[in-house]
Specification:
Two copies of one chain form a homodimer. The first copy, chain A, has 591 residues and is of the alpha+beta class. Chain A has three domains: 7-157, Acyl-CoA dehydrogenase/oxidase, N-terminal domain (Butyryl-Coa Dehydrogenase, subunit A, domain 1); 158-278, Butyryl-CoA Dehydrogenase, subunit A, domain 2; 442-584, no CATH class. The first copy, chain A, has 19 helices and ten strands. Chain A has helices at residues 7-17, 20-23, 34-52, 55-61, 77-86, 105-118, 120-139, 142-153, 280-316, 337-369, 373-408, 420-427, 437-450, 455-472, 477-503, 508-513, 515-543, 548-565, 569-584, and strands at residues 65-67, 70-72, 157-162, 178-181, 187-197, 206-215, 226-231, 242-247, 258-263, 269-274. In chain A, the strands form two sheets. A five-stranded mixed barrel of chain A has the order 4-5-10-7-6. Chain A has a two-stranded antiparallel ribbon with strand order 1-2. The model of chain A has no long low-confidence stretch (mean pLDDT 97). Chains A and B meet through helix 9, helix 10, helix 11, helix 12 and helix 13 of A and helix 9, helix 10, helix 11, helix 12 and helix 13 of B. Chains A, B: Residues 462-586 form the Acetyl-CoA dehydrogenase-like C-terminal domain. Chains A, B: Residues 278-444 form the Acyl-CoA dehydrogenase/oxidase C-terminal domain. Chains A, B: This is Acyl-CoA dehydrogenase. Chains A, B: Keywords: FAD, Flavoprotein, Oxidoreductase.
Chain lengths: 591, 591
Amino acid sequence: MTYRAPVKDMLFVMKELAGIDAVAQLPGFEDAGLDTAAAVLEECARFNEDVVAPLNREGDVRPSSFADGQVHATPGFKQAFHQFAEAGWQGLQHPVEFGGQGLPKLIGAACGEMVNSASISFALCPLLSDGAIEALLTAGSHEQQAAYIPNMIAGRWTGTMCLTEPQAGSDLSLVRTRAEPQADGSHKLFGTKIFITWGEHDMAENIVHLVLARVAGAPEGVKGISLFVCPKFLPDGTRNDVHCVSIEHKLGIKASPTAVLQFGDHGGAVGHLVGQENRGLEYMFIMMNAARFGVGVQGIALAERAYQLAVRYARDRVQSRPVDGSTPGASAIIRHPDVRRMLMTMRAHTEGCRAMALVAAAAYDAAHTHPDEAVRKQNQAFYEFLVPLVKGLSTEMSLDVASLGVQVHGGMGFIEETGAAQYLRDAKILTIYEGTTAIQANDLVGRKTARDGGATARAIAARIEATETELAARASDASRTMARRLGAARQALLDVVDFVLANVRTDANAVFAGSVPYLMLAGTAVAGWQMARALAVAEDRLAAGEDPEFMRAKIATARFYGDHILNRCTGLRDSIVEGAGAVTALELEAF
Amino acid sequence: MTYRAPVKDMLFVMKELAGIDAVAQLPGFEDAGLDTAAAVLEECARFNEDVVAPLNREGDVRPSSFADGQVHATPGFKQAFHQFAEAGWQGLQHPVEFGGQGLPKLIGAACGEMVNSASISFALCPLLSDGAIEALLTAGSHEQQAAYIPNMIAGRWTGTMCLTEPQAGSDLSLVRTRAEPQADGSHKLFGTKIFITWGEHDMAENIVHLVLARVAGAPEGVKGISLFVCPKFLPDGTRNDVHCVSIEHKLGIKASPTAVLQFGDHGGAVGHLVGQENRGLEYMFIMMNAARFGVGVQGIALAERAYQLAVRYARDRVQSRPVDGSTPGASAIIRHPDVRRMLMTMRAHTEGCRAMALVAAAAYDAAHTHPDEAVRKQNQAFYEFLVPLVKGLSTEMSLDVASLGVQVHGGMGFIEETGAAQYLRDAKILTIYEGTTAIQANDLVGRKTARDGGATARAIAARIEATETELAARASDASRTMARRLGAARQALLDVVDFVLANVRTDANAVFAGSVPYLMLAGTAVAGWQMARALAVAEDRLAAGEDPEFMRAKIATARFYGDHILNRCTGLRDSIVEGAGAVTALELEAF
């Protein structure tokens, strides 16, 4: 067994931090309480542990391959994807009317972590289908929804997001793919899209491309971009004029083919407008926001698996006497304090970000289905604030965690057969795709902080403060220390919010010089807040005699988060508030 | 041109921080003043830029290959190595009597950075020869020195260090390779060595293995290990019984073959004892200490090249409007504050660690040749304190720098053809080989801090304080801010030294739980100290009208170091002093 899903921790977070009982009171989620969650998670764990996880290394050693316009997935992937869809995992969060399970995002996010721990390359295919389904649910016509969504939920077809072009990466205003209106109401698409994940493959019968393009005569920039659905095979079975011309040779996630797609080289690819003309970017953002959260979950998933591999090695590998002389000869390296420090760092990051992500998911559920509009709005603001943190922090920490995973293995970590190095290679895409960390940070500064005058950020700080107060009133040293650390982190967060608001209009360079550190600070504070809440709950449960081993572990991990991670916030604050000038002081010519 | 050697920065550090004028007053180094350094560095730059640097990517794409016991180096490597030796680079720091140049380590370290920037895989071969030469100079007989050193300096033969065995990595007490005494005074060696860098190849006529082994009946543990010289071909030309059975499939440095060597499978490998029996580990440490410093320099070298690649991309890649609206359309991404922050982080780390390494090198020179014994001792203590910092910090930062280098490239960074990803893959070995970061940190705590009761650490802190005083008295805001940051870092360092000394005997676990953070703190403080000294010098030179562009850049980079890197020390101190308990609190079974 190379992966064991952390079902217990997920259920603890769902119950104690994310409030699954409240989610189960939302309309439509009446059956989605803790018992359902436990049953679904157990089933999901079994599937991913048994079917998907064994494919991960195989996908690295035998990546997807390209020949003559065809992409062949790694052996075993097609069968596993078939099983995945058969078992209903593709439809987990999608509407029952289209064949889905209609479960809340809270449960979906936990299941998403598992399949990504099992294999990120594999999981990317259903992740992209999820995005396409989401976009069609939002902006597609009834006919489009009926034509595409059930087939995607059934796993017969998969979806893609075709945004990037060679000159248009983070900056989608530069998209040049053009759409020519046809007499029958359809369009013909012409252009080149790059970095299209699972843009071509043999795992399903058809591939539904959602494509950003410009209708002739549309305004320049982002306001002239429309969204089109453009399947590989048209409904009548004819092959559409979209062709894969190559796939990339990448650092990691090698099993997932990253395609260059040519649209319209043979007369034009038939596409149909989704929603209204020139509103394509808006619809695409719906997919992207879901995908950003999903990529954050990938970071957590990767960190979890890297951690598990490192723990196994550290238990087995015998080397050197313990520094405290507790055994006379060499011992398992897990007994060495620095190995423990590395493992605890990996574990604390993972649990902290998982708690943050699941709390965000529950807010999403409330934001979409709570009967009270004020509650919906408040949850929506909270969720939207957290999306860049989940994406940015979880992926950045996953890089550190994967690197520590290699380090725990020593020289063996550098040998590919060990498997630890793959996680490091795979992790590096997570801080880049679906918007780099800097793009997430821009979102945090602009849309999530400046736009509402810091209201959401301050509301979160107030909630953090309430947790501090609760912890400070407790008897344990662990709680009181955590209250102090959390207070320092909250104050740092507020200082930076003040700095952002005071300068964003007058000195944008200074604010954006600190945007990524701000994201790291805010994410660390929010994840640390969840660990602080977990600490309090675990102390109570422990006192009540409930699952003492788990509760003691949670307390220890939360405390580590406080002492070794949460305390980075103050330094980040200083860098942001006092160090902005130094970021842009060097003249361009001097680099 | 894919690499341009930073000769100007190296000469600035040599002259203004490392004191090359003083080095040139040491006996034997009378000709090694700034003019000589400039001439040597220019020549070295040309060679590495033109001959070695173009091979780096080739070595990644076409690694060393193994077949039938033979290893073939990447095409082009053999010719380049021949040119390298012909031009005298192998003998740069070695004695004139054996055909070397007899130059100080200060110049050697700068040249070492260049060849490693050009290609770490390539540079490893001469680096290992340097270690073997060093060991033979220290412990070899006159006959051994005469037989091996001139051939290695001429590049006809190369050297290796054969330490690691499957069960003996960081813990060399577990070495099992055995040496059986023969009637003629030689020994026959039997055993398996793994992870032997350039352990087999076709770049030279012979390979001189320096091998740790146990003579039959030797004491257990590290006190029973002896050092043997065991060449691939014996002096009479017969093939010795040491054979490569495989090479590793690695994450990075793929051009440098990492061999598994079998000694004695066909009757015994002929080896000759180097120095005295059972003192092998002591001699090996001579090689290792040189190699550890050398690996630190590899980190700096890799960071420099990753930085240069990222700067080039950031200048060329056009994407998105500047946040300050300074241009109406999309601009080169180097104009975006977060890209600047990443590039400045890369640059500041690299310059800081370079300054620290060259200052250490100058101390090594004084420690070995200064006429006054007290001065020698003082410099030796300073150098030895700095070795784990140079190794540990420079390699850890090189990982961050390489990762940022990929990040600057966005999606293109994840595509192998771009080249940025190779640096990340290559960097990961640097924190592992020649002693992991944790091993360096153990050395810092044990031999470098506890053993002299903190005397060296406190002496360094006092020197840092003198720099603070000087900076605080200056007029500029940059100087006074830096003085403040440096003071906080120094205080943090002293707090940790006190903590280490107070607890190392009574609570070793607590001290070693913070050993790596202590290393990072001490390294950051010392590198930051050098940047602070550089700031003061640069302000003076700028006021005098000397090279204003360079001096302004140095001031800006130093300031960035202060505002964004040096200020991490306080958080590290808190983690070490207050967080030790949390590192080992989780019960072993709970991982």
